[in-house]
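In this section we turn from sequence analysis to structure. A common task in structural bioinformatics is to predict how a protein folds when a small molecule is present, because the ligand can shape the pocket around it. The inputs are simple: the amino acid sequence and a SMILES string for the ligand, here magnesium ion. Study the lines below before reading on.
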Amino acid sequence: MTVFHLATDLDGTWLPGPGQVPDLRRLEATLLAQPGAVLTFATGRTFLSALEAIERWGLLPPQHLISDVGTALFHRRPDGSWEEDRAWADRVAGHWDAGAAQRLLEAGLPDGLQVQPGLAPIRRLGLQRAAGADMADAGRKLHLACEAHGLKADILPSHDLYFDVLPPGVHKGAALAFLQQTQDLPRPVVGCGDSANDLGLFEFADHPVLMPAGLDDREAPPALIRRARRASFPGPRGIHEALAAFGLLDEEEHDH
Ligand SMILES: [Mg+2]
């Protein structure tokens, strides 16, 4: 029996694009037939938004769910309900100055920045650049605003649109490392993603898998890009192919 831990981003990675639902169902069936495989979703979505995606696509539920770019971690109970990992929540909260974050929001965000609409993020801020604003310029202003309000944070730009303002040292990879250690999960860890908020995931994974349309050299350290396997196909089919290429699937499918 092959054991491994598959930690995957959702949007642009696991969630099927047009015409990719059959690929997703094949990948899920393959994982179900692998009793030694552990599945974790690691997303920038909030917990509720991740649950919505699981519901909407009828996804095979993962055993663990890292939400909010790593600031929250949940475990699925045998009855299908979810439980937040309090130890991780406490650790992240210890690095997050909620008061300073609140002061920054109350003082008004710098020009060119806005709060991501409809988002209730946990222990972080989810911002985006305003329409027409320059990403680099908005990023500089955001750094200055954090400094001015005494908010110690990591600012993670992605998709040429978003800014995740995170507790220092907290990201998907840090949550994954904590999960791996505290739950004594199997290795190797396969980490799949497509954007800059997956860099921590790639760093921690034994086998980083970068989706075909994901990150380029401008957005990621070249060494990390070189270490990652670039998936040959977009979406679930690319992940499936990568797992097979790593020799992790007990029974290879030949219908591709
Ligand atoms: Mg993504």
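The pocket of magnesium ion is lined by residues 9, 11-13, 193-195 (CB under 6 Å). As an exercise, try to locate the residues that line the magnesium ion site and compare them with your own expectations.
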